[in-house]
Amino acid sequence: MKKIRVMIVEDSLVIRTYLEHIIGSDTRLEVAASVSSAEEALRNLNSIAPDVISLDIRLPVMNGIDATLRIMAERPTPIVVFAANVDSDKLNISMNALRAGALTVLEKPSGVTGKDYDRIATHICDQLVAMSDVKVVRQRTSRTISDPVRDTNRNDPSKLMKTPISRADRFRVLGLVASTGGPNALVTVLSKLPADFPLPILLVQHITPSFLESFASWLEGLCPFKVLIVKGGELPMAGTVYMAPVDHHIEIQAGRISINKAPLESMQRPSGTLLFRSMARTLGPRCLGVLLTGMGDDGATGLKEIHDAGGHTIAEDESTCVVYGMPAAAVRLGGVSESLPVDSIGDRLAQVVVSLQGESHA
């Protein structure tokens, strides 16, 4: 079987050596090139023709965002970003690299002797293998990383109506689930919702655990809502995104948000399926479920349960998914009321929720 060719872009010799060892030890992968700068990577991009790129976010001259933009314009290639730690500055750069076209962010390995080395090494290699299969598209170098909260370009809601919503429905909670490609998709969806959106939002995003707190801060800065990591027992309120904590499921029980460490569902904890399932059981037709880009099938079964309970379900359309895995699984199960491109989902939610909530208070 042909090995997956990886280009390593890392200015630290120590980390570069760790990555070479980790990648070289995996029978699925081979190190096609190992360079210390984005400039060197770009000079050799066409001749090396890697299947996937491991990219340091902090490079000596050209940073990871600019490097990502150039790569996606000149020779689109799947990019996995590595960050050394998770302070807000580096996390912002890493997340903005995702908005520029990178696929996921991983924490750099700290050495080959740590107690978690085997787990970290396996995760890195699995991610490189999975991302190498993603079909990325060419982007213009002039693309800018704008502030979506201030973006006033909105789709015409009249063009979004696909499935009639019963006027008897009165929604109480919106559930969002995302994985690979999720950070950018979430910004796109949440920034299109009005600041007075009347529902609390419960979120499961699969992300490297050490990035969670900084990710929540980053997301809050790019959408009109507070973003809180759930501690358990919260009464969900409008104007707030409640995000699943590290290694815990979140559920709605008796009107409050609970957390637990039940077994993994679809190899995930937190699991989108368990969130959606609890919403379906507790709220029935009074809940909305949205399943965004991601590998695997987490969330799909739960989304169908919301659909079968009379709730409304939206899946991100294949045309905008970084990875059309989770939404595709939900479509196959018959659990999707409508599939929409990611940049239409926020407007559609505002249309069906705000208009109906307005009627209920008329």
How would you characterize the overall build of this protein?
By secondary structure, this protein is an alpha/beta fold. It has 2 domains: 4-132, Response regulator (Rossmann fold), CATH 3.40.50; 149-360, Methylesterase CheB, C-terminal domain (Rossmann fold). The protein is 36% helix and 19% strand. It is built from 11 helices and 14 strands. The protein has helices at residues 13-24, 38-48, 64-74, 88-100, 117-132, 182-191, 212-220, 272-283, 300-308, 326-333, 342-360, and strands at 4-9, 29-35, 52-56, 79-83, 104-107, 173-178, 201-205, 226-229, 240-243, 249-253, 256-260, 287-291, 312-316, 338-340. It has a 7-stranded parallel beta sheet with strand order 8-9-7-6-12-13-14, with helices on both faces. A 5-stranded parallel beta sheet has the order 2-1-3-4-5, sandwiched between helices. Helix 9 links the parallel strand 12 (287-291) and strand 13 (312-316). Helix 4 (88-100) crosses helix 7. The longest helix is centred in the C-terminal third of the chain and has 19 residues, at 342-360. The radius of gyration is 21 Å and the shape is elongated. It starts with a strand and ends with a helix.
